[in-house]
Amino acid sequence: MEKLIFSLFLALPLIFTEAHVPGGGFTKLFDFGDSYVDTGNGGRQATSWKKPYGIIFPGKPTGRYSDGRVFTDYIASWMGIRSPIPYRWRKMGKKVQGHGMNFAYGGTGVFDTLVKAPNMTTQINLFQQVLEEKLHTKRDLKSSIALVSLAGNDYAAYLAGNGTIQSLPAFTTSLIRQLSLNMKHIHGMGVRKVAIMAIQPLGCLPQVSALTSYPNCSVTGNSISKFHNQILEKSVQKLNKETKDSVYIKVDIYSAFTAAMKSQEHHPGTSKFKDPLKQCCRGVNSAYSCGDVDKNGAYKYVVCKKPNSAFFWDSVHPTQAGWDAVFSALKSSLHILLG
Ligand SMILES: *[C@@H]1O[C@H](CO)[C@@H](O)[C@H](O)[C@H]1NC(C)=O
Ligand SMILES: *[C@@H]1O[C@H](CO)[C@@H](O)[C@H](O)[C@H]1NC(C)=O
Ligand SMILES: *[C@@H]1O[C@H](CO)[C@@H](O)[C@H](O)[C@H]1NC(C)=O
């Protein structure tokens, strides 16, 4: 599986050239957060382990919430390393741990969410335990990057509870306060750089837009993201002032999603994502989701003919083609991570 990742990226030498500019030399990646970066921590009952997840790469489910590679895979390849193994498989021997470790769990958040899996605080505690087991040394950490994803499960939980739109700003503030503490904690453990993903345009997720504003993105949804990202930006600046060094980097996923979804509009002839807000895999009706089967084993979902032409795989996750486009939009801004 990882060999395949390599052969794909070797076909794109530009990425590797960039990863090896002097001043880089980062050799390990540690992931925290949710399904946008999870590469297999979910248990066998997780959606990410069901067909047709993984249908494009590697051809079967591997615990990734997409038809193929997810953001972690792109960042790891860009660094010139293999994707770090999921925490769940840490006992597989020292050799596989060489590239860091992935502590992210799909469905989770900074706070507890609707999914029963380790929240970010707990994920960081797992990292601490791994360090205590001496699986990674202080020196390893000096050449490490942490990638932290917060893609919106906290907001989903908040709005599903008794959270109101009116009190959302206060919620965002408390969310980012906790997120900042988490980032400081990760850096405090010795990780050299902490890359925090801004939140994507929530109003463009099929789950949101399909209900209210399709074929447009929901303006309210996107304004939640914009506010979140503003507060995040301030908090990252503040953290960097404290460390007197650019330890913390905001990865602008919002702009990258927007660019990836819109970029083709200007080139209708080569349109890759003709209908970017439409998900490729969906339930046969609203009672079902991508990956569902009924009790007789009958498929209760349909998959589009060309996943490569869809930006979204399911109601919240990009396809591999989607992540590819997001990564392309971000690539030039990632140098700052190596500085
Ligand atoms: C994270 O989960 C742990 C264990 O369930 C819990 O004790 C803690 O309060 C949670 N942290 C946050 C910030 O929600
Ligand atoms: C609902 O609101 C009450 C009072 O503001 C608060 O104590 C409680 O934690 C909230 N419940 C949820 C699920 O957010
Ligand atoms: C989508 O946007 C177009 C152009 O702004 C607008 O005319 C249309 O009414 C919008 N559709 C919905 C469902 O909001």
From TrEMBL:
Molecular function (Gene Ontology), one example: hydrolase activity, acting on ester bonds
Pfam families: Lipase_GDSL (PF00657)
Assigned keywords, A-Z: Hydrolase, Lipid degradation, Lipid metabolism, Signal
Annotated SUPFAM superfamilies: SGNH hydrolase
Gene3D superfamilies: SGNH hydrolase (3.40.50.1110)
InterPro entries registered for this protein in UniProt: GDSL, SGNH_hydro_sf, SGNH_plant_lipase-like
Coiled-coil segments on the chain, per record: none
One of the GO biological process terms: lipid catabolic process
Annotated signal sequence range: 1-19
Entry superkingdom: Eukaryota
PANTHER family: OS04G0650200 PROTEIN (PTHR46020:SF4), OSJNBB0059K02.9 PROTEIN (PTHR46020)
Family: Belongs to the 'GDSL' lipolytic enzyme family.
Name of the protein: GDSL esterase/lipase
Organism for this UniProt entry: Vitis vinifera (Grape)
Lineage start: Eukaryota, Viridiplantae, Streptophyta, Embryophyta, Tracheophyta
